[in-house]
Design brief:
Pfam families: TetR_C_14, TetR_N. InterPro entries: Homeodomain-like_sf, HTH-type_TetR-like_transc_reg, HTH_TetR, MftR_C, Tet_transcr_reg_TetR-rel_C_sf. The chain is mostly helical and about 210 residues long. It contains eleven helices and no strands.
Amino acid sequence: MSTSLPEQTSPPGDPLDRLPLRERKKLRTRRAIQEHALRLFLDQGYDATTVEQVAAAAEVSPSTVFRYFPTKEDLVVTDEYDPVMTEFFRSQPADLTPLEALRATFRQVFPYLDAQDRATMVARTRMMLEVPALRARMIDSMRSGTLGVVAELVGERTGRAPDDRRVQAFAWAVMGVLQAAMYAWLDSDATLDLAALVDANLEFLAEGLPL
C-alpha cells in the first residue's frame, strides 16, 4: 500500500492554539508521532509495522511512543479532538441547550479538521474498520474517551452527574448520530461535507428522530 499523507501543519486558527501551552506541546508531540505511524502503516501495512519502527521514524524512543500511546492500536485510534471539542464546548453561551452547544462546537471544529486532516481522518477510519484489533480498540476507546467527554460536558451544562442515566443516554445518542454521519461520509469516499452531515444528524436528534 503506497498511499501517502500530506504533511501536517499548524496554521493560524489551529484549534490547539486555544489550549494551555503545556497541553498544546503534548498534543503536538502526539500528533507528530501519530503522523509517522500512519505513514508507515499505509506504506508497510499495520501488522508489518513495529512500534520500534515508528519511534525511529519520529526520532523518539519506544518508551516515549508508549507514553503517548499505551498500545500500538492507540497509534491509530487516539486523536486530539476531544480536548479541542471540550475547549470549544465550554466557550459556548450559557443559554444554549447541550445539543445547541454541541452543534455550535462542531460547526467551529469540523471545518478546520476537514481542511487540514481529511486524508488522515480517512486513513485512520478505514484502518479502524479493516483491522480486527483496531475495531475492538475503537469500541473501547469510544466508550472510555469521547463518550465520557460528552457526558462530562453535558453534565456540567445541566448540573447533572456524568453517570446520570439520562446524561448517559444522551451521550450514547450523540455518539450514534456522529457514527452515522462518519459512515455516510466514508461511503461517499469523503466527498460529502462531514460538518454538514454531523449538523444534520444532530438537528434530527434535537427534533426527536421523527420518521
